[in-house]
Specification:
Jelly Rolls, Phage tail protein beta-alpha-beta fold, 19 strands
Length: about 375
């Protein structure tokens, strides 16, 4: 009797995608373990895992190549027991060539070791179609900063009270800034643009440096090197990560080194690119070194910025003289006592503690 029941093509594709994703996850886990050295038990388990399927071998190589962990794979030479010369794995042969010290050479030799023709057609197809991806989240507490080195060697610096979700795949680099402020130095990769999603905006670069801060209804962007493009994000684009693998069009708003723009998340205000000199950039990014530099901001603006780095909240007394005060100087982030001392001596501003976390500022003149 003929069996007329066949799996639906879409269902089969989904099942294959799940298997590919599982292999990638397992390979990523093994790379992480190799990076910190395997135990004897883990060594045996990795041997068994690699022997289960040629697709496992391909997935391990793919993950190591994508995340620049080829040096970790050099340790695979120790994972295979010594055997008779005729039966030795190809890895032992390359070991005798004395070239294992070079990561570049190791990458080439591993490519030869896992030649496509050594894989079954089904395994080769699955390994090629799999997209290696990873997702991580990072956050900082109030008053804390943190530097993250991303898989492509980009540098991500989080300012106080910030939260990001980082998604990397073989075709796209995506950072969702959900709260706070980041400074990112983007590793150059023309084939894989990096997109920052912030309050309904897409900020994209292929290799540059810029600062992004999410405020109540605005996203402030300062470009410190290179050029970025900005486009309003649409729901379909955010939902489909693969669409962010494409470069933003030439018609997108362009911001270059030494420029800044306030991006309106409501879409109701014009977005004008402004020139910003090196001194202003240094002041705006002084938080990188644990300082806050003010160059004539109003007292209200200064205390609002200072409050981002401490649990203490400041209130201004109902006094018109306080509104006229402009603050200039450098303050250590989180140093509330030092700040109050400077306010007292330089601006004739006294204070009253209303509670453990609230201070009222008053003009004494």
């Amino acid at each position: 009797m003929t069996n007329n029941v066949h799996p639906h093509p879409l269902q089969a594709k989904r099942q294959q995608a799940v298997l590919d994703e599982q292999r990638v996850a397992e390979a990523s886990d093994w790379i992480a373990k190799l990076d910190r050295n395997l135990s004897a038990t883990e060594t045996t388990e990795l041997q068994q895992w690699l022997g289960q399927s040629a697709a496992h071998q391909a997935a391990l190589l793919e993950v190591a190549t994508l995340w620049d962990k080829m040096d970790s794979l050099r340790r695979l030479a120790d994972l295979f027991p010594q055997a008779e010369p005729a039966a030795k794995p190809r890895w032992h042969q390359v070991q005798h060539w004395g070239l294992a010290a070079s990561v570049a050479v190791v990458a080439t030799l591993l490519t030869l070791w896992w030649q496509p023709e050594l894989l079954s057609p089904a395994a080769s197809s699955g390994a090629t179609s799999a997209i290696v991806s990873t997702q991580s989240s990072y956050q900082t507490r109030i008053g804390e900063t943190k530097t993250i080195e991303l898989p492509d060697q980009s540098k991500l610096l989080l300012n106080t009270n910030s939260f990001v979700v980082v998604k990397y795949s073989a075709k796209a680099r995506i950072i969702e800034l959900q709260r706070g402020e980041i400074l990112i130095d983007v590793a150059h990769d023309t084939d894989r643009p990096l997109s920052v999603l912030a309050a309904g905006k897409i900020i994209q670069a292929v290799g540059t440096a810029f600062n992004v801060q999410v405020r109540d209804r605005q996203v402030e962007l300062i470009v410190t090197d290179g050029k970025v493009r900005v486009e309003t994000a649409v729901a379909e684009m955010i939902a489909d990560e693969h669409s962010l693998a494409n470069r933003l069009p030439e018609s997108a708003l362009a911001i270059s080194k030494g420029e800044k723009v306030a991006l309106d998340s409501t879409g109701q205000q014009a977005e004008t690119v402004q020139k910003i000199d090196a001194v202003d950039i240094a002041a705006s990014l002084s938080w990188r070194s644990g300082n806050l530099i003010f160059r004539g901001e109003s007292l209200a603006e200064a205390v609002a910025e200072i409050s981002r780095y401490t649990d203490i909240q400041f209130e201004l007394a109902d006094d018109a003289k306080l509104q006229d005060i402009q603050v200039a100087g450098m303050f250590k982030t989180g140093d509330v006592n030092g700040l109050l001392a400077v306010f007292k001596s330089n601006f004739n501003i006294s204070h009253e503690r209303l509670s453990r976390d609230k201070i009222l500022l008053k003009f004494e003149g």
